[in-house]
Amino acid sequence: MRSLRWWQKGMVGVSLGVLAFLYLPIVMLVMFSFNDSKVTSFPLAGFTLHWYEAFLANGTMLRAFWNSLVVAVFATALSVAIGVTAALALDRYEFPGKRLFQNAILLPLSLPGIVTGIAMLNFYKQIGIPQSLTAVVIGHATALLGVVVSQVMTRLAKINRRQFEASADLGATPVETFRRVTLPSIRSSIIGSALLCFTLSFDEIPVTYFLTGREVTLPIYIYSTLRRGITPEINAIGTVIVAASFILIILSVTLLRERDQS
Amino acid sequence: MMLTRRTFPGFAALFSFPLAWVLLLLIVPYGIMISVSFWTRQFPLFYPDFQFGNYALIFSDPQYTTVILRTLKIALIVTVCALLLGYPLAYFLVFTIRSAALRNALYMLVIVPLWVSYLLRAYTWKIILGTDGALNSLLVSTGIVDAPLDIFLYNQTAMVITLVYIFVPFMVMPLFTVLDNIPQRLIEASEDLGVGPFMTFWKVIFPLSLGGVIAGATMTFCLSFGDFVAPVLVGGPDGTMVANLLQTQFGAALNWPLGSALATLVLALVLVLLQISTRLDRAGHIDLA
């Protein structure tokens, strides 16, 4: 390695600092979830699994956890189904209002979630959809469409279009062409965006906050618990979520790599 | 045969479904929110109307202007801090790390926190900065202070730290992409011409990375401006942001028209920023061509 100038060394120093900054809080969360004390202070008070037992015995929290899973699964399925069709339509057709349509799909990704949540609440009230987990699923699926559309469109733009023509020339029906040519080439972007949708939906607060009724999701449960004060139980459930996220990430990276190699 | 295949009618029907979905469930809701912002409230009900009273109130009442200005200030500070932390990191990943495998692994490490719950990432700062928290107990046990301080949490500094922490990866992503796409030849050419590494950075690398700076800064600013969670968890009365005002109008204050007007303002701000960012980015590209 070439010798570095002082400002380059500075950049390296700041970078390592930022990397530490990114992980320090996560390490704290995990550490305090096993700490045998109600307060999150040093020195640590000893190892305990008490907080894990507490959340496994907390029916309300488990119910919220289950609700989050159900919402995330349905929202992801809807988002992928609609998003892939939308991406194909945007890739294949010219139609009036196409730019507006595309910008609208992508808007919720850069717009603070609270604005989308309020827009949806206003609308649902007008047409009489009651606040419920169903409303949350529809809201999440709509807000997360942009994730699927942008990923799949990027992938579609890289495909050589002659493949589709060749397939049609060889007598394949549009459905066959989709199943045997288009789908395999966009598969990894679909899997990737589905995993991302799932994670984002599982974690979503603003849209959920305005659309949910009596039944809540895990983030809303945690959020309202935190407004009253903190309990180490949250650290325990947080650690479980962090661990699950890491497993999902490793899984998706491995899956996508194998897909690319094959 | 060809012709019938190409005009397979089921196709158009299939594609009209996502169009209808987005129109009905996304574009119409934003439209309705904007229209409700012109309504009148007569407690506890709202009436369809077309008046600018809600906007007039927001711009004249210091209760609202203070919070809006404060939110702008915090979002700006967060963006600058995230840039100051994110740029060196992206630079380090692209130019200092020689091994592609290590570079990708470290880049993954930066992106992974985005996948870890956003709520939990905001919450950890509550356990670190709180009066009974990790930072205080460290300070007390090392003898730096005698008693736990309550100055770390529930203020604007805590807000800035938490938001920077949450949004730094959003800054690093576009920066990494643009820096990684700078052709090595350009840097070598600059060095061959006898330009030192600092001037190479300043005259070659930095200008070419401006697209990433703009993209990252826009994203960070827009998202931190409307952040919903950090103000509630670590903000305190001094850290009230636009999101809190919005939330109150739809909850306790029960003034949907006013809340919709505030949300419409946030929507407008983000749209303007996105527009400026696209323009700047496009101008940058023409420059390079």
From TrEMBL, chain A:
It is a multi-pass membrane protein. Residues 65-252 form the ABC transmembrane type-1 domain. SUPFAM superfamilies: MetI-like. It is found in: Cell membrane. The chain crosses the membrane at residues 12-34, 65-88, 100-121, 133-153, 234-256. Gene3D superfamilies: MetI-like (1.10.3720.10). PANTHER family: PUTRESCINE TRANSPORT SYSTEM PERMEASE PROTEIN POTI. This is Spermidine/putrescine transport system permease protein. It comes from Pararhizobium capsulatum DSM 1112.
Automatic annotation (TrEMBL), chain B:
It is a multi-pass membrane protein. The keyword Cell membrane applies. InterPro entries: MetI-like, MetI-like_sf. Its main location: membrane. Keywords: Cell membrane, Membrane, Transmembrane, Transmembrane helix, Transport. It comes from the Bacteria. This is Spermidine/putrescine transport system permease protein. It is found in: Cell membrane. Pfam families: BPD_transp_1 (PF00528). It comes from Pararhizobium capsulatum DSM 1112. Residues 68-277 form the ABC transmembrane type-1 domain. The lineage of its organism: Bacteria, Pseudomonadati, Pseudomonadota, Alphaproteobacteria, Hyphomicrobiales. The chain crosses the membrane at residues 12-39, 74-94, 106-125, 158-179, 200-233, 253-274.
